[in-house]
Amino acid sequence: MTYLKLNDGNRIPRLGIGLWEVPPAITARTVASALSLGYRLIDGAALYGNEEGLGEGIRQSDVPRDQLFVTTKIWNDRHGFDETLRAYDESLTRLGTPPDLLLIHWPCPAQARYVETWRALIRLREEGRVRSIGVSNFNADHLERIIGETGVTPVLNQIELHPRLQQAELRAIHDRLGIVTQSWTPLGQGRSFEAEPIRAIAARTGHSPAQVILRWHLQLGCSVIPRSTRPEGQAENLALGDLELTEDDMAAIATLEAGERTGPDPATFG
Ligand SMILES: NC(=O)c1ccc[n+]([C@@H]2O[C@H](COP(=O)([O-])OP(=O)(O)OC[C@H]3O[C@@H](n4cnc5c(N)ncnc54)[C@H](OP(=O)(O)O)[C@@H]3O)[C@@H](O)[C@H]2O)c1
Fold first, then answer.
1. What is residue 248's predicted lDDT score, i.e. its pLDDT?
2. 114 is catalytic
3. Tens digits of per-residue pLDDT, 56-113?
């Protein structure tokens, strides 16, 4: 497993397992299976309704806790300073272990409370209750606002990113600010699996379209969190070691940009 350095001195595994839509009844075994295959980063959220299973999967595995990196997120109905502290306590109880990274799930600009929420995350970090703090689905103006008003830069912004939504502008802003980009829905619901450059690179290198796309994320410099509940899918997504995309491959995949979201628009959602 390789790591990216965070701007607070901690580090995050570059590739992890996502838990959105993983049913609670199979979450513990999905997590335990991923950990046994070599995953060390687990992406959870209060919204996913499976934090108990996440914690249980960690306890079932024989990987020491200090080798793991657990993320969870504050959901949209818990914005505000005190409410966020309460939401954190509830996540902690469900997980049974403190997360390594706590994110604001969406900025919800219409609620106009994300700066207060960010102040609560800063407090949690100052109290040593969580090691790293970051955001998700923040646009440039949301980032500027929290940094400008608190002086604290998030370590990471987890955003929708796949070949049909490549986020070049936001990635450049992250690079300038020292924020890690983490890609959600990295496989883009399979919409690019049959696209010519992906298909051709997969055929030439003897890898699957999913592996080509995940390697593309890593070569962009992103952290990436594909979800698979199948052990074979989990193993496939981790087996990228000998795959290397050329500059021409990267340029060919860049042409797939379509500005196409699979999820909501952060400027208006929540
Ligand atoms: N911050 C946010 O707002 C936000 C939003 C969405 C997602 N996320 C995070 O990002 C994670 C990943 O996103 P996602 O779950 O939407 O989608 P994804 O990881 O891009 O794709 C998951 C889907 O692809 C299939 N799949 C996985 N590996 C495959 C492979 N090698 N070949 C073919 N199909 C494969 C999975 O099915 P099988 O299980 O059958 O393999 C599943 O249907 C989430 O789980 C969550 O942790 C965050």
1. 98
2. no
3. 999 999 999 999 999 999 999 999 999 999 999 999 999 999 999 999 999 999 999 9
How close is the Cα of 18 to the center of ligand 1, in Å?
6
Indicate if ligand 1 lies below 6 Å from the C-beta of 3. Answer: no
Catalytic residue among 39, 48, 88, 114: 48
Q: What share of the chain is helix, strand, coil (3-state, %, to 5)?
A: 45, 15, 40
- H-type alpha helices, 61-158: 81-95, 114-126, 140-150
Candidates 73, 135, 184: which one to mutate for ligand 1, based on the most atoms within 8 Å of Cβ? 184
Q: Which helix H or strand E contains 166, and what residues bound it? A: none
* pLDDT above 90 for 173: yes
Ligand 1 within 6 A of CB of 34: no
Give the domain ranges of the chain.
3-190+218-241
Question: What type of residue is 23?
Answer: P
- Whole-structure pTM value: 0.98
Fold observed for domain 3-190+218-241: TIM Barrel (3.20.20)
Q: Whose CA is nearest to atom 11 of ligand 1?
A: 18
- Confidence band (pLDDT; 50, 70, 90) for 241? confident
